[in-house]
Amino acid sequence: MGQVGGRGDVLPRASRDAQIGAKVTEALERRAPLTVVRAPRGYGKTTAVVRWIASRAEGPPVRYVRLGLEERVGAGFWRLLRAVLEEEGVETGPGVDDRAVVRRALTLHRRPLVLVLDDFHEAGRLEGAPAIDEDLVELVRRNDRLELVVVTRAVRDIETTGALSVDTAVVRPTDLALTGDLVQALARRRGLTVSAEHAHRIADDLGGWPAAVRACIEAAAMNGSDTVVDTGLVDDYLFGLLQDMTSDGLRDFLLRTAVPEEFSEATARAIVPGAAVGTHLRNLRAAGLLTRAHRGVAVRYSYPRAIREALVRILGETRPEVVPEVHRALMASAAQEEGPAGVLRHACLAGEWEVALAVVEEDWATLVTHHQDALVEAARAIPDALVRADSRLAVVRDELPRGMRRPGRNPGVWLPSDPAFLDLTARLRSAEGGTGDHVMVLFQWAVSAVLAGDNDTALYAFGRVREHGIEHEDLAARLMGTVGMLMTRAILGDVEHALGWARDPELADVLQGPSRDGLVGLIQASARIGYAIACVDGVLPDAAAAVARIRELRRRDDLWAMSVFARAHLATVSGSEEERARSIGALRAALRHTDPGGITEATLATTLAELLLLSGMSGAAADVLDDLPDTAVSATTRAQLLLAQGRWRDAIRVAEAVLATPATRRAHFACEVHIAWALDQLGEPAAARRAFAQAVRTAQETGLRRALHLLPTEVFESLAAGVPSARALRPADGRAPARPLEDAPVPPAPADLSDREAEVLVALRDHAGPAGIAEQLGISPNTVKTHLRRVYHKLGASSRQEALRISAHWPVRGASRRGD
Q: Which residues does the UniProt record annotate as the domain HTH luxR-type (predicted)?
């Protein structure tokens, strides 16, 4: 029998926090004929309603009725309601049909009455629910003295169709969910200090579920721990919620769709074939368990993080066979919605190793270029024997995690591109008999890092390519690694480092030699582009010749775009008006072949804007910049635009924001110069010279000069007057001193070579590889390789030839041991 109460009866304890459930009070105070308070277990529905009942000092009588097991059939519900009316003094009259008696009595009753039906989801749960809802709506519609409040966990007809017949106030789960501010207030009341960020995270993780939030706070207060989501408590609440569900289909739908982090309606149909997907989605959203978000034109659904994780745990414990079933179903939808990375992830989670290996085989270039995280996860999940049998996966497992982006670093904003030269490199290397996958995996990874703006990772990966080439005496690999280091340093604006890599003897031979074909020809083209960019950034006398040596590339991809950039880059410092106009046209044409949203597009477009500014077309430059995402690359040129417009303070603000980011050295240097220029124009000479001195230090450290040459002569003279060392960076002829590839200074001999390392270095003069050195010194080839790596590192050398050149005139210890 359900619980029956009046204003003076003992009711469930009301919460002391009147702010929680305020939406319930607001709805009840409206005095609508029908009020529906709907939310899952633990949302404080009853507490809020009871608080309102207890706080009423006047108004019509209120009868509180809590339904139970006997009311799950229609006859039991009407029997209870008849008893309630008789206790209230409502004239019911004779009759054995309780439904007919109640309907007649409430239709004829003329005194005000508020009837509160709690746990209304139990009314006719097994039989008679539609008739109950229909009758109650009709009674409220006929009797304007009757007010009905239903408190329920489920959507009922009384809410959906009832609102079409009578004025209805509805309180939904979102109205009862706790916000971060309320979580913080509850924690404070229990003596816990919780930051606003932490409180909002708890609210988001639990979907604002009041009972779960309270329980977690209470557990933290009792245990003296930080306020965190208690997984055991959440699991208990979810168990209860699943038991409350009357529909096995809805329960199954809920558990299965919790497996993916988010899903579309099409994905749900694949996961739960034959289900009433639209109905289930509406019911779960109505219950406050499911959120909907738009991803462009697509609609995606997801559960709060802690709730989803609890559902997956419950599914794994109760029906473990379902989890791989779901992932198998997700493989097909992932192919349409997520691409190869999604298919690979679900194949691994389903234990479908053959499918996973097939995805790696078919989509290798895309995965290693754009989805290294997914590759690493797969390599860790796939059985070790299968990983060892696939050299690509072995490299992924052993190499990629060490160089991938560290936590907390800028994830980048660039959309991925798929440069054609990567496929060409792989084909050429294979045709020339290279050692193959290990080098190409690392090279593809390094290139993808460059295109993602992750230059630290690129330097690591290109360095590993070089090390592989040194260790295995693989010239092509050494050249690939070295040209990668050159290009990355050039992109960063580390002119001195870039020129240092260009002086590598092996790469210098290729860079300065006649045009080559095949893989070396591709390396040559890349080296010439990188070298030209560095020469322009350093405003070297060789800059024009370096740009002229760039060979026209047939494939319109990112490498070709960088050759266009190098030519336009030169036009910014040494081009005539005609040359600038020609470069503007070339950049506009190149942008039509460039993938939107990538770093290559940003590089070309900002160079176009810069040339437009130099040509006096600031309006056109602004239009170009307005089409770009807000990044350090675009902001650096935007600061230059603001300078051209005389908006000095705005230019400083934008430039300082760039300096606060991990942008390239080129961007930082340009912004330092921009700030000095703006301060000079604002009449703040002391601050301007301090800013200019910092720019000069950066120029001396990096070899960058170009931004200094873009300063108006009178501004440079004004700034340089307080920084004498600046004049050497922009001599009267406008060209910095030459730093040719040849005659590079030889560093002093390091004093920290061990005796064995010195012996290995001496033996290197007579032997081209580890085998000969090992035989001469009586040690293993692997030991020789280890010593050679250390020697190269200490010398700053990248090859045998460079190590021998650096040490040619040294009195190397260990020479006497071989009779020299």
A: 746-810
